[in-house]
Amino acid sequence: MSDAFTTDGAPTGEAASLVGNKGGRPRTFLVVVDESEEMGAALLYASARARATGGVVALLKIIEPPEFAHFAAIGERMADENREAAEQTLHRFAAETVKMSGRPPVLYLREGHPEEEVRDLLETDGEISVLVLATGTGAEGPGPLVSALTGKAAGRIRVPVTIVPGNLTEDEILRLA
User: Fold this and answer.
1) What are the Cα distances from residue 46, in Å, to 69, 93, 139, 174?
2) What pLDDT is attached to residue 151?
3) Could you give the angle at which helices 72-101 and 39-53 cross, rounded to 10 degrees?
4) pLDDT at 9
5) Residue 112 belongs to a domain with what CATH number?
6) Which alpha helices (H) appear in 60-108, and where do they start and end?
7) Residues of the chain whose pLDDT is less than 50?
8) How many domains does the chain have?
9) Residue 12: per-residue pLDDT
């Protein structure tokens, strides 16, 4: 199959039909939106890849369940406030995504535990092509989501996972994308 690629590495012939966008459908790069420092690296990479490939970015914001709510009215008010804050965060990053990728992103807002919600979305939404995460740069390690989704759960994810080193500069990320 050595003749399946051009000198610049692009696939040709049958190999070309096996890669790229199936049926003209754009690739969808999923980024989990949170307030971590490294999330910006994942968003920049996904946006640059989407722009380069004619794809689209999907943003997933997860509202984690409250630790406790002793009174129903307080719990409801907390849930409403959390949802409003999550929507604002999602829309703020959506605006950034449009600037970086050139297209409006697909938006998802879910409630639950992050690892479970990411896995569930990947199982139920056949449009998502790639999950893009970034590693934390602190002493605590790569981050809970990276650890959870690349450990034992990795075999249960149906799409490739791209992990962007969180310590890369914008220029380095753009060169890789």
Assistant:
1) 37, 13, 25, 10
2) 79
3) 50
4) 42
5) 3.40.50.620
6) 72-101
7) 1-21
8) 1
9) 47
CA 164, 176, 119: angle at the middle one, nearest 5?
35
pTM value is 0.82
Q: What are phi and psi of 102, to 5 degrees?
A: 85, 0
Return the pLDDT at 58: 98
pLDDT at 137: 86
87: helix, strand or coil: helix
Torsion region of 90: left, alpha or beta (phi above 0 gives left; psi -120 to 50 gives alpha): alpha
2 part of a folded domain: no
pLDDT of residue 50: 98
User: What is the span of the domain harbouring residue 41?
Assistant: 22-176
Angle at 135 between CA 144 and CA 156, to 5 degrees: 55
Number of Cβ atoms within 10 Å of the Cβ of 110: 16
The distance from CA 155 to its chain's CA centroid, rounded to whole angstroms, is 18
Q: Vertex 83, ends 133 and 130: CA angle to 5°?
A: 20
Which letter does DSSP use for residue 35 in this model? S
Judge whether 174 and 47 are in contact, CB under 8 Å: no
Alpha-carbon distance values, 48 to 81, 103, 132, 143, 161 (Å): 33, 11, 12, 23, 16
The full DSSP string for 108-146 is EEEES-HHHHHHHHHHH-TT--EEEEE---STT-S-HHH
